[in-house]
Amino acid sequence: MSSLLSVSDITKLQMVKYANLGSLAILVFDYCITFSEEVRWTWFKPWDVPRIMFTISRYLPFAGVGMTAYDALRVSNQCASTVEGYIIHVICIVAAESLLVVRTWAFWQKSKRLLIGLLVYIVLSVAGAITVDLIPTMLIPGEEPPPGTCYFESTRSAAVVYMFLVVFESVMLILTVYKRFHNYKDCQSEIIVTLYRDGIFYMLCILAVTLANVICEGALPSAYSNMFDTLQPVSHSVLASRILFRLRQSNERVHEPSMSVTTLDTQIKYLQPSSTSMSGMGITNEV
């Protein structure tokens, strides 16, 4: 793409800007319709790790997505600083993925080996993704944004960054499916079913958005590179919030309303699935 944009390129960039503004609208709309659930299920709960991660993934995207929307609507020829937006973007995704790790950890009866392995894997993945994103070398051949310009575009290396997310989310998906059919195959406990069903739906949706970003960043013309840039943290925020709400709602139907997710996770630890068969009612009673 030359420094002087064609009408076709301008149209593509305009579509990308509209898509990012649409993601901001989704975030605001979802917050409005789920605010009452947030008040009920989180405001008067202890400040445990899930609630801290929830708060970060719930509210920080407003800042990150707002900054991206401002950048998309910018008409000045001066380049806006994207460092703050980049940092917020990374923190939002890490916080939402941390909720996914907590949920997977609980589903695995709070396995210390799994937790340590996942934490090490997260650190290595984040470090690798940031390194790839910051190095000037072009890792994927193809059209790049014109140097020295401030168009609303990303480099091809961003596709590699999203590939790190694809691998991580695929690992979470495999761990959940394996545990469900290996240990909880015959379990009909509402909490276990909620953990599994919502977790699978969440991971499939997030994986679809991440794959879409890989395609836009790595295969499509550079004008489309930021098409789903804000949709990534928005989808994480929206789905992670709903999973927490549904989990606590299911927990309340089985236990007293004041029980926190941490207490639930602690009791899931003591679910000892039989290697042959398992009674759903028995599991519910043990929880």
General description of the model:
This protein has 287 residues and is mainly α. The chain has nine helices and no strands. The chain has helices spanning 7-43, 49-73, 83-107, 112-134, 157-183, 190-218, 231-254, 261-268, 280-286. It starts with 6 loop residues before the first helix and ends with a helix.
| Rg over alpha carbons | 21 Å
Q: Can you tell me the residue ranges where pLDDT is under 50 for at least 5 consecutive residues?
A: 257-287
Strand content: under 5%
Percent of residues in helices comes to over 70%
Order of helices and strands: HHHHHHHHH
Cα distance spanning the termini: 60 Å
Shape: globular
Largest sheet features: none
In round numbers, the mean pLDDT is 74
Number of helices: 9
**How many distinct beta strands?**
0
Short description:
This protein has nine helices and no strands. It has helices at 7-43, 49-73, 83-107, 112-134, 157-183, 190-218, 231-254, 261-268, 280-286. It is globular, with a radius of gyration of 21 Å.
Topology (SSEs and partners):
Blueprint: H1 7-43, H2 49-73, H3 83-107, H4 112-134, H5 157-183, H6 190-218, H7 231-254, H8 261-268, H9 280-286
Salient structural properties:
single chain; 287 residues; mainly alpha; 71% helix; disordered C terminus
